[in-house]
Write a structure and sequence with these properties.
The strands form 3 sheets. Strands 3-6-7-2-1-10-11-12-13 form a 9-stranded mixed beta sheet, with helices on both faces. It is about 30% helix and about 20% strand. A hairpin with a 2-residue loop joins strand 8 and strand 9.
């Protein structure tokens, strides 16, 4: 049986400009697919993405669900586009309230005040869509701070879902994508559901970028350092970290190294 790898990221080129993360978001799934794996790839449908130019279209059978965040309903819309040279589809999580604005995470250098709820909506939207697809991943690989709640959701909220009982592993790739102003202080409360306790979310009682990274690490099975210039405080924290870790890799051979890391964690040959 083919290894199934779910990629969840906040950036994929050509839908957004080229960055360290968006290039990995574009070429890593292709490279893993070419190693005879099944993949699914998700990113947010930021308002800066031109739907006509990129030929996005709504997937009606996957849309239509409402996600409740802090007692407010938010319709979940799923769109899809193809990257033809890679023979690869990308699923987009969309919602008019959260993703219609023309900027991704900041406007004129200031973070959006609702970035906490946008990240919650994105994370839950990805998991709910994977459930609708009936597609159980073996590896879930998250990229960037906007995906940092996925490990928590998979381990604490959706942990009893029959679809996810295959012993999947979560990998979190950390980048130099630090935000300056911490997220809304009520973030831990907004994450409390399905028997979650305050202790489960205590790492982000102060929801700074650094604490959010530690929160993602806590619920992941392996860590990849996706950038050469990681925040110094986090670098020191990771020196004491005991989970499997892959240091920054050369752009020329990182796909091979990542594939080896997947094998090490899931013990399945790519």
């Amino acid at each position: 049986m083919k290894l199934r790898v779910l990629f969840v990221t906040q950036e994929i080129t050509p839908f957004v400009p080229e960055t360290e993360m968006s290039l990995v978001g574009r070429y890593l799934p292709q490279g893993i697919q070419e190693r005879d794996c099944e993949i699914r790839t998700f990113m947010p449908k930021f308002g800066s993405i031109n739907e006509r130019r990129n030929q996005l279209h709504e997937v009606i059978r996957l849309s239509g669900m409402n996600l409740v965040i802090d007692d407010t309903d938010h319709p979940l819309v799923i769109k899809v586009a193809s990257i033809q040279p890679a023979r690869m589809q990308v699923y987009f999580i969309d919602n008019e309230d959260f993703f219609s604005r023309k900027f991704a995470l900041t406007e004129k250098g200031k973070e959006f005040k609702d970035n906490d709820e946008r990240a919650i909506f994105y994370s839950r939207g990805v998991v709910e869509t994977v459930k609708k697809l009936g597609w159980a991943p073996d590896i879930i690989h998250c990229h960037g701070w906007f995906t940092s709640l996925i490990p928590y959701y998979m381990r604490k909220v959706f942990n009893n879902e029959p679809l996810f009982d295959n012993g999947f592993k979560i990998i979190y790739s950390v980048y130099n994508d630090k935000f300056q102003k911490q997220l809304n202080n009520n973030l831990p409360t907004k994450l409390m559901e399905n028997g979650v306790t305050s202790e489960d979310v205590s790492l982000i009682n102060t929801p700074s970028w650094e604490n959010l990274m530690k929160f993602a690490f806590e619920y992941s099975d392996g860590i990849i350092i996706g950038t050469e210039s990681l925040d110094a405080n986090l670098e020191n924290y990771l020196k004491e970290f005991e989970k499997p870790m892959l240091r920054f890799q050369n752009p020329e051979n990182y796909i091979d190294k990542y594939a080896d890391f997947y094998n090490k964690l899931f013990k399945n040959k790519i």
